[in-house]
Design goal:
heterodimer; A: Alkaline Phosphatase, subunit A; 2 domains; two-stranded antiparallel sheet; 12 helices; B: mainly alpha; two-stranded antiparallel ribbon
Chain lengths: ~475, ~850
Amino acid sequence: MKQFWSRRNFLFQSGGGISGLALAYLLNQEGLLGAESEGACNAKAQGYNPYAPKKPHFAPRAKNVISLFMSGGVSHLDTFDPKPALVKYAGQPLSGKGEIVVRQGNPGPLMPSPFEFRKYGQCGMDVSEVFPTLARQVDDIAFLRSVYGSSNDHVQATYELNTGKIQMGLPCVGSWVTYGLGSENQSLPAFVVIYDHRGGPLGGPSNWSSGYMPAAYQATVFRSTGDPIIDLKPPASVSPEQQRDRLDLLAKLNEMDLKQYPGNSELAARISSYELAYRMQGCAPEAVDVSRESEATRKLYGLDDKITEPFGRQCIMARRLVERGVRFVQLYHGGLGQQNRDTWDAHDDVKENHTRHGAEVDLPMAGLLTDLKARGLLDTTLVVWHAEFGRMPISQKGVGRDHNPGTMTMWMAGAGIKGGQIIGASDEFGYKAERQPISIHDLHATMLHMLGIDHTRLTYLHNGRNMRLTDVYGDLIPQIVA
Amino acid sequence: MIPGRIHVVLALSYAALTAAPATAQLVSFATDIRPIFENSCWKCHGGSVQLSKLDLRSRDAALKGGQRGAAIVPGKADESRLYRVVASLEKPAMPLGGKLSADQIATIRRWIDQGAVWDGVPGAGAPNTSASLEEMAISPEARRYWAFQKPVRAPVPPASGDLTNPIDRFLEQARVERGLQRAPRADRITLLRRAYLDLIGLPPTPKETAAYLADESPNAWANLIDKLLASPHYGERWGRHWLDVARYADSNGYEHDFDRPNAWRYRDYVIRAFNQDTPYNTFLAEQIAGDEFDRVTDDSMIATGFLRSYAKVGYREKDNPQFRYEYLDDMIGTIGRGVLGLTVNCARCHNHKFDPISQKDYYKMQASLFGYVETDYPLAPKEVVEAHRQKNAELDAEIAPLQRRIRELEGPYRASLAQEKYKKYPANVQRAIAIPEDKRTPGEALLAGQVIRTTSVSSAEIDRVMTPADLAEKRALGQQIHALEDQRPKPLPLAAVVTDGDYRFTPDGPGDEPAPGKGVKQEAISGSFLFQGPGRYQAPPSYFLIRGDIESRGSLMKPGFIDVITYGNPPTELPPPDGRTSGRRRALAEWLGSPENPLTARVIVNRIWSHHFGQGIVSTLDNFGKMGAQPTHQALLDWLAVEFMSRGWSIKQMQRLIMTSEAYQMASQFDSLADAAKDPEDNYLWRFRLQRLDAESVRDVIMSAAGALDLTMFGPPVFPHLPSEITSSTTENVWRNEDDGPRVWRRSVYVYRKRGLVFPMFEVFDLPDQNSACGRRNVSTVPTQALTLLNDEFVLHQAKLFADRVKEAAPDDTAKQIDLAYRIAVSRPPRAEEAEIAARFLTTHSLADFTHVLFNLNEFLYVR
C-alpha cells in the first residue's frame, strides 16, 4: 500500500514480460478500425506505467472530476451572490474596508447589479438572469460564496486556482490527482484539458503542467475539432497500412535487440509504449466523436445553436471522456484574444460581457449536469465550476467591474455533494469573504478528499521535501457532502 | 464522512453552554490566559514583532487591534477576532502551524465573554523574543554530518588484478564487499558511440567510426576522449547540463512572458566556458560576481546573467515589492541547490527543518545578494560607448524642444477631443463629469476621476481635426524630428547583466508605471539606480524577515554564509578598489569556490559523475542534506573532490579520468543475473547503465542521421516550426514561427526557451520545468513519445532526408543502402538477420519507410 505513494513508482518499470504482449498486439492484424471497438478502447493497465490505477487512501465519493474554468473572472455579484446593499448605497464610495485595491486605475463608486435575480429550486436559490437554464438545477448544486484568492492578476490567480500557489511551474491539481490515482483507461490520457476555441487561458500551458513531477502527469490538450491530439495520427502522406507495416518492422527489430538485454523493463516498456500509442490513435478520436451522440443529446448541450455550440462541444467531450475513465477533465471557457470581449474580464461593461458569456455556457453546463445525472455518472463525477477571481462591487468607468480576489462564488455538484445549499458568505457589499472564508488550499483539500485522497498524505519528494498540493494548509469544507 | 471541524465546533458551543453556570468562576488572566499568550501568541504579536501590526501585550493594544481590526470585543467572544481565529472560525487559523487545545479555546472564549479583564501589569514580562527568533544553535551532532566535513583524500584501495585507475579500485572494493562481478568491457563500437553521445551529443559518422576502428594503438581510446573534449560541440552538450542548473530561458514567464532579447549571450558564454575548460571556481565567480572583478571583461559581465535567469513577472514590479524577494529567493535557491547541494531556501520563513541551516543564514545570504539590480551592459569599448551616449544625448536635446512645440500645438485639440470621448461613457459617468469638480459628491468624484485620468487622445486623432496651418506646422516639426532620429547611431550590442545598485530607483519596464499612491517609489529616499559616485557604493539595507514576511522586519542583516559549512573566517565583502560595488557577491563567490568549502567540489564532481554514469554517487544531485540520498561511495566522492581541486578545478580533467576508467568502459548488458538480483539498481556499478537520450539529443541525432543538422554555433535562438494549434494556447505570440527547413535545423541548445510554452518535442522527452534549478532530469516512457516519433511532420521529413542521403550514396543497391543506413543510425553494420528482414521490407516499401523505423529503434535512442 505504501508503495503506491512512494517515489519508486516513477520508474515506470516492472519485471519483463510486457514486450511479448506488445508484439502480439502489434502483429495482430486488427488494424485501426479494430482499435476503435469498445473492448480495445477500455484497456486495463498492465502494471508498469505511470498511469496504472492506484488505490485511494479511503473509499472515494468521486472517481472523476470535470473542472469548468471560466477564464477572466466571473462577477459573483451579477450571478450567484446578490447584494441589496449595492442598490441602497449605489453611487457612494466603498468605505470602511481599508484601502480599496483595484487592478486598473482608481476605484469607482458602488454599483448595483444590472441583472435581475430570481429564486429557483426547492431551496429557493438566488440566481441572476445570466444563468437561467443552469438555475433550474440549483437543488443539485452547492454554492460556495466565500472563496478567496491571493492575487488580482489573471495569471497568478489562475495558477493559484490550478496549483495552490501564484508562482509559475508547480504541479496542478489534475497532475496531483493523476499521480495519486492513475487512470482507469490505458488507451486514453488520464488528464485532459480542452480549452476555448478562441485560444488558451492566460498563463498558457503552465496551468496544466506537472511542475517538478514527471512530465507524464501533465495534461494532454485535446482540441475540440479535428484530431484531438497533436501528432495523434500520421500526416495524409502516410497511409494506415504503411504505418502498420512500419510498426511491425519496428517491433521485430526491437524484439531482436531486446534479447541482448533480457529482463530490461525500460526497453520493454518502450516497445510496449508503441502499442499504447497505436491504440490511442483509434481510441482518442472515438472518445471525443460527438457525431456519435443522439440528436436529443446534441440538442441538450446546445450543439444546434452557434452560440452554445463551442462550449457545448467541450462539455459533451468531457462527458464522453469521464465515461471512458479519464480521471480529470478541465474545460476552459474564455481564451486569448481581446480580453474584454473573449473572456469574462468585464472591465468595460459587465452587463454586455456577462450576457454574452453567460449565453455561451449556461445551456451547455446545464446539459452536462442533466446528462451526467441521466446516465448515472453524476454520482461518481465531481463537477467544479469557478473563475480565477470575483469582481468588484464598485464600478469601473461607470458600467464595468475590476478584479476582486477578496471573494468569489464557485459551485460544485455531483459525487454526493449536498445540493441546494450555500456555504460561506461575503460581506454586505461582496468585497471580501466574511463567513467561513475558503482558501484555494481548502478547495483542493476538499476535491482530493472527494476522490478518496487525504491531502496531507499525498506527497511527492522534491528537493528533500515531501511536497503537497496544499503545502502545509488546507481544511476540508465540512458541510459540503450530505 | 468528512471528519472534524463541524463536530468540534458543535462540541465547543456545547461546552460553552454547559459551562455557563460556572461563569461565576472568573477566568484569570495571570493564571489562565497569560500562559496561552506566552506560548502561542506573543512570539509574533509581542515585544519584538507585531505581525499584521497586532500587539497582544496589553488590553489597550488588543482592543485597538492590527491591520485586520480589533482583536477583542470585550463581552463578545463571537465577534472577537482573537477567538474566531483560534477557534478556526476565521482565516488564517491561529496560531499558525499549530492549534490550541479545545480547553484553551474554551478558556479564551469565557475570558472574553467575561469582559477580557487584564489583571496584572500590562505587558510586563512579555519577553523580548527577537534574539530567540533569530538565533539557532547547531548541535555538535548536526555539525558532524559527513557533507559538512571538508573532504579528505582517502587512501586508494590496493590494486586488485589489472585495475590501475583509482576510480576502479574504489569501485572494485565496494563490489567485492557485496559479491558483485564487474561486467566485461563493451565492444569498441559501443564505446565509440557512447563517448560521442556522452561528450558531444552527436553520433560518430561512418567515416569517424571506420577511422577509430582502424586505430589499433593502445592509446586509441584516450586519444578519442581528448579529441572529443577538444571538439567545439563538447560545450554545446555539457554547457546544456549547466543551463538546467541555471534555469536558463529566453523569456520571462508569467502573464506577458516577455522576450529576453539578450539572454542567449549567457547561453553562449556557458558553451564557451565549457569549451575553454574555465576552472569551475572561476566559472562560478564570473556568474555570481563577474561585474565585481577588478578587471571586468565582456564575458565576466555576460556571465552574471546567471543570477537573473529566474522567472520574472516583469510587470507592475513597483506595485509589488514582494516580487523582488521572490527573485532573491530564487537566486538563493539556485545557488543553494545548484552549487552547494543544499535546500537553503527552505530556511526563508523558519530554520531549516532537517538541516542545520538557520533562517539567519538565509538572510545573511540574502544580504550578500541584496544590492543586485538588473541592467543592460553595452558590449563595446569604453570610448565607443561614451561617444554613443553623447551622440544620443545631443540628439535628445535637439528633439526635446520640437516635441514640446508639438504638444503645445496639440493641447487645445486634445482637451476638446477628450470631451468628445466622454460622451461614449454611460449617462452616470457623463453626468458626473459635467458637474464642476468642487460640486461632485465623493461617489461622483470617483466616477469622473476614473474616466478623466485614463482618457487618452492619440496623435492621429488630433491630426484629423487640426486646422491646416497647425497640421502643417506639426508635420514640419515631425519631419525635423525624423531627420534627427535618422542620425541616431546604430544600437550597441547589449548583455543582460547584474550589478550592484539601488533597486528602489529601477527605471520602469513595460507596463511598470505604478498606480498612484502605491509602490516603493513612495519611500522618502534619495539615490540613483546605478552607482554614480562619489565615494563608495553602499548596498540598500536588508533585514531578517520574520516568517519571511516582508513587512515584519527583524535585525538589519550583514552579508554572510551558511554557518555550518564555513571554515575559518572568510571575508564577507571584497569590494573592488574603486568601490563601485559592495564586493559582497565576490566574497560569496570566493567562499563558494574555496577549497575550505566542503560542498562545492563534491557537488560538481557528483554532477559530472552522474552525467557520465546516469546516476550520481549521491543520487540526489541537488540535495546533499539529510533528506537527500546518502553517497554510495563516500570515500570515492571525497577522493574525486580533492583530486578535482588539486587539478585546478578542471572539469575536462575529471572527465578524462572518469572515462579512462574500466567502469566507464563496461558493457551495459545483464551479463550476470546473480548481480542483477543483488543490486538491481546497479548502485555499485557492476555494469554500465543504459541511458535514454535526453530531449535535445533526440532531436539532434535525428537531424544528424538525416545529414540535415546545421552545426553553426552561437547566436540568437531559432524557432523551429510549431503548428498554430500549439502557439494559440499561449499568451502573446512570442514564438516567431519559422517554416520547417534548414534555417531551424540547428542544434537543440539553440532552440528558443519560452517559459510559457515548452517546445513540444522536448517536453514529451522530459525536459525539466524551466523555472527552477534541475540537476537530474526525469526519464519517462509514455505513448506520446512514440506518437511524436511516429507521426510528427518534422521526424517524417528527416526520415525522408535520411533516405535521400543513403540513396545518393548507394544508388540502386538495396543491400548497400541497408548497410549504410545502419552505419549512420547506430554506428554498426546490420546483422545478417536484420539485413534480411530489412531487405524483405524494402521489396514492398520505400527507403524512407525504413529510415523512419530506424529513428524509432531502442538502439537509436539509448546510450548503451
